Amino acid sequence: MSDELESGGEGLLSPPHTHQRTILHLDADCFYAQVEMVRQPELRDKPLGIKQKNLVVTCNYVARSQGVKKCMWLKEAMEVLPELVLVDGSDLTHYRHFSTQISGVAQSLTHRVERLSLDENFIDVTDLVDEYMNATGSSDIEGHVFGDKEPVSMDLVDPCGCGCRERLVAGSLVAKQLREQILKETGITVCAGIAHNKLLAKLVSGYHKPNQQTVVFPWQVHNVMNSLPAARSIPGIGSTTFSILKDLGISTVQELQDVPLKLLRTKFDSETCSRLKEVSNGIDETSVKKSGKAQSVGLEDAFTKVNSVAEVKVKYQILLERLLKLLKEDGRVPVSIRVSVRKFDLAKRFGHRETRQTSIPSSLFPDGVNNVGENTRSSLMKTVMGLFQKMVDTSKDFHLTLVGVAFNKLIERVREGKDISSFFGKRTREETTETLMSYYHREGRFMGERRGRGERGRGASNFYYDRRVDNHGEDVFLVGKPREYRQDPPIVQPLGVIGCFSVDEDRTFGHDRTLLKFIEPQYLTREGKTKVNIDLNRGWGKNSPYTAMGENSSLNLYQWILNNSETLVDSDDTPTRLDVDFICMRRCLIQIMKMPYNVKERWAMQAEYFRGTIYLVCYASPEDLEQRKSEPPYMKKIAMWGHKFEQIMTGGDPDEGVCANEEFRCVLKVKVDNFSCLLAPEVDCADPELFEEDFKDLSSFITVKCNREVDTADAFKVECFRKFMLNKWWAQNKLSGIPRVVVGFRTEEGQIYRLENYDTDELPTLAKGLWEPRVSLNILTSFLAFVKKMIMEAPEAVHRFERQSPIVIRHSIVPSVRGAAEGPIKVLPDWYREQLFSPLDQE
Ligand code: TTP
Ligand code: MG
C-alpha cells in the first residue's frame, strides 16, 4: 500500500497510471416495472407497482412521482396511492430473459461485460474508447458530469493530464450509443455511470435518473466519496463489515479515510484493511470480470410464519420443482446444493438467516438435467430436508419466515459417452515415457514440429480441449484451456533469499549451509553437449536410501521459521504477523502451474490460515502413502541414480555411497503477482565461480537432472519430453530464480555419455508450441486467489483442494478433530502454533 494511504490521505489525484481504463456501469430503470410495461404497453402511463408477497419491490417513475417508493409495504403504498396498478412479480422468468438480452447487447460490443445483478452490468470499454478517439478525435461530453445538474460543455479544467479526460469523454459517447442500442433492442431504458474504475462508475450511475448518464473525472473522487452519507454506502462494505467498523468508531467515509491502519488491523486481515482504505478513497483496481452463465440458480419463498415440518416440506418441494425447471433451461449440472432458512427470533423481533450446503453426487444426473427422474427428485428432497434438520431443531418450537434452495455450483457436463477414468486408465504410455533434447540442437527443430495439426493423435489434450469450461464456481476451481490464460503474465519474481538450512543423513535439521555442494567446473560447458562417461551404479551397495516422506520438508521449513521469525515479521506495528501471504513447498506451486498441460496428474493440497498467513501443503492420502511404500524396485533405482548423478556432478567419490536423505534448501521469498510466498526449494548445487556468501538470489545455483535418453526417432517421446519435462524444470527454476539446468542423459543401464546445459529462460523456446510460461503463471495466480478466497470464508478451518478430474479442483473443509495428531486433518503442527511469537504474546 502507498504511504499516501498509510497516512490516511485521500488520494485526491491517484497516480496517472490508474486512470487508464474507462468503465461503464449500467443500471436499468425501475427494472421489473419496465419489463411489465414493455410486455403490456397499456401500463406505460399508469402508476405501476410490482409486488412480491406484501411488498412493492419496485414501481415505475409515474408511481414514484406520486410518492410510492421501492420496497414499500403493499399496504402503505396503497394508502399513499390507491390508484396504484399492481402486477405480481414473483415469477422472475421474464425479468431473467430481459436481463440476458440487455447484457447481450453490451456483449455484442465487447466481451468485457460483468453481470452484477439482474439489471446491472459493468463494461470495460477501454479498448473501444481508444478506437473511438482514433477515429473521431475530440468531441463534446454526453450527459452529465458529477456535481452538475445540467449537461456541461468541455471547458472543464484538467488537473491530471494523463489523457483521462479525453478517454472519459469518449466513454460518455460509447455509453450513450450503448444505451440507445439497448433501448432499441429491448425497449428498456438504463442509466449509466462512466469512470476510470468500477467503484466510481457504480457510485455515479444513479446520480441522474431515469434514463440518463453521469461521468466522474478522477479529480472529483474526493467529492464523490465524501458526498456519501455513510461508509456503508460504499459498494463492497456490507452490513457485517460496517458493524465492525462502527465498533471501531468509524461511520463516515471521512472517518474510514482517516483511521490508522493499525486500528483496522485489530479487526481485519491486511488485505481487507488495504481494500477498505482504497475504497474509502475511491481507488478500485479490480477488473471487469467476464461473466459466463450465472454460477448458481436459486429460489426462495418468504412468509410470515411456518412452524411445522410438514409445511416446510411442502414449501421445499414446490421450490425444488420450480428449480429443476430453471436447471433444465440452464442445461448445466449442479455439483452442490444449498438450503436456507430465516429464523424469527421473537424476543428480538428479528429474522436471521442460516444456510447449509453439500455436494451432489454426479450419479444423480446420469442423463444431464433434461429428464430428472423420480429417484433423483426424492434423493434431492432427502438432502434438502437433511440440511434443514441440521439448521432447525424440530423437536422444539420453531418459527421460520423464509425457506430457500439453490444449486450453487453448476458445471457443463463432460462430453457424452466418455468417461474420464476410463480414459486415464487407457493412456498409460505417457506416464512412463521420458524423453530427449539434443535432437533440437542437432537439427534445429523437433520431430513433432514436422507434423501438421490434423495429424496429432487423439488423446488427452483433444478430449480436454473439446470441453466447455465455465467461470469459477464458489468452491470448485475449474481449470481452463491454455488459451484462457494467455493474458499478460503476472510478475513472478524471487524477492530474495532470506536463509537456508541443511538436512543430514538422519534427517536432522541444521541451521547452516554445510550440505550445499559445488558443481565441478568441467561439467558447465555452455556449448551444446559435453561427452562424459559416468557409471551411476558405482558404489551401489554403499548407498543409503531416502527414509522420509516429502511432507517432512514443510516441517523443516516451519522449524526454520521458528528460529527466524523476527526476520519475517510484518512491521513493528504487527509483530505477531509474518509478512508473507503463503508459506508452502515449491512442489505445491509447480503442481498448479502444470495443470493446463498435464491433464492426468491428480493431487490434493491442504491449507490452514494462521496469523495472517496461509500454509499450503501437498497432502498425501493414506492410499498414496501405501502406494509409495510399495513402489517397484525399479523406481527406487531411478531415484537413487538421480542422487548418484548429483554426487558425481559435485565432485563426490563415485565409489563411495550416496546418502539420499541429505539435502540443502534455501528459504526464499517470491512475489507471485500480488501475493508473497515463502518457499524452501532444494538446491542441488552452486557454481563455485559465481557463489557469494551473502547471496540474495539464487543466480549462482544450478539444478541437476538425470533423465533417460530420448529416442529422437520417436516423435511422441520427443514431444512428451518437451511438454512435460521441460515444463517441470522451467517451473522449478522460474519460481526460485535458478538460472540453469544441467541434464545427464542415462541409458536403461544407468550409464551417462553426454550432458546438456540449458538456461532456464531458454526452456520455453525449446518447447515452443507445447506450453507457454504465461499460461502457467496466470493459472498460478488465479488459483492462489481462489485458495485465499476459500480460506478467508472460513479462516478457522482446515481446507482441502483436490484435483478430481482434468478440470475440476474441488474445495472442501476438512472435518475438525480437536487434539488430533499431525497428518491428514492438520496442516500446522501444534508445536509450531504454540511457539511462533510465543515470547511476544506473553509480554
Ligand atoms: P434496483 O436496480 O435496485 O431497482 P429498480 O431497477 O427497480 O429501480 P431504479 O430505477 O432505482 O434502478 O433493483 C432491480 C430490480 O430488482 C427491481 O426492479 C426489483 C428487484 N428488487 C427486488 O426484488 N427486491 C428488492 O429489495 C429490490 C431493491 C429490488
Ligand atoms: Mg435498476
CATH class of the domain at 16-226: Alpha Beta
Report the span from N to C terminus.
Answer: 29 Å
Task: Tell me the number of helical segments per DSSP (H or I, 4 or more residues long).
Answer: 28
Can you tell me the CATH superfamily of the domain at 16-226? Reverse transcriptase/Diguanylate cyclase domain
Which parts are unreliable, with pLDDT below 50 for 5 consecutive residues or more?
1-17, 414-474, 818-823, 839-843
Could you say which small molecules are bound to this protein?
Answer: thymidine-5'-triphosphate, magnesium ion
Structural class: alpha+beta
What gross morphology would you assign?
globular
Radius of gyration: 31 Å
The name of the CATH architecture of the domain at 16-226 is 2-Layer Sandwich
Strand content bin? 15-25%
Largest sheet: 10 strands, mixed
Helicity, as a percent range: 25-40%
Question: What average pLDDT do the residues reach?
Answer: 82
The strand count comes to 29
Going across the major beta sheet, what is the strand order? 15-29-28-20-21-19-23-22-16-17
* Fold-level CATH name of the domain at 16-226: Alpha-Beta Plaits
GO molecular function, one term: damaged DNA binding
Protein name: UmuC domain-containing protein
Family: Belongs to the DNA polymerase type-Y family.
Domain UmuC: 23-238
